[in-house]
Structure formats: C-alpha cells, structure tokens
Design brief:
Length: 110
C-alpha cells in the first residue's frame, strides 16, 4: 500500500487501470519517498509487442480519465523488462531505488 498525503492507495488498483490501455502489456506500481506527500506513486510499464507508439504523456492522459489525480503515477517509465528475482517475482524496491537515483542525479545536474 502507498500512503500519499494521508490517503491509502492500492497499487493493484492502478495496475489494473494501466493495463486497460490498448498498448500496455504489464504494469508495476510502487512508491518512492516524497518530502511533501510522504510517498509518491510511480509506475514501470511494459508495452505489448508491435503496439502502436505510446508515450508517457499518452498513459497519463488515459489515466486522467479513469483515476483520481492523486492516484496517477507522477513518474512513469516505459521499459522492456522488469527487475525480477530468479523465481520471476518483480523487485519493486529496486524499481523504486532506480527512480530515486534518477531523480537525485537530475537534481544535482540542475
């Protein structure tokens, strides 16, 4: 569960909506720490093979018609694969670490 600004958000709820997008094969929703809201919603998305071109903005627009604004992932990455264990379980904590590192790197370069 993600707690954003005191509101409980269930990743599976958001994942189910994301995969309704015609170009999306799979989605993983998780959180990263956030100074203002305690946690921020993030998503890694895998597209279907031969899917029409799809950008992060397309996903956010699609979600804005289906989810409350605070449930829409602030940070979305379209990826070819998820980081998994040897048994195939997605390691969401590693996805979170990568987003945090990217944001810190971007902040330092400004």
């Amino acid at each position: 569960m993600i707690i954003r600004g005191g509101v409980n958000i269930y990743p599976v709820e958001i994942e189910k909506v994301i995969v309704e997008h015609p170009s999306v094969a799979e989605a993983q929703v998780f959180s990263i720490p956030d100074e203002r809201h305690d946690e921020e919603v993030c998503a890694w998305i895998k597209l279907k093979p031969n899917a029409p071109s799809c950008q992060v903005e397309d996903i956010k627009k699609f979600l804005s018609d289906k989810l409350a604004f605070f449930k829409i992932p602030k940070h979305i990455r379209i990826v070819d694969q998820f980081i998994t264990t040897t048994t195939g379980k997605v390691q969401k904590f590693k996805l979170s670490q990568i987003i945090v590192q990217e944001l810190e790197k971007a902040k330092k370069s400004q």
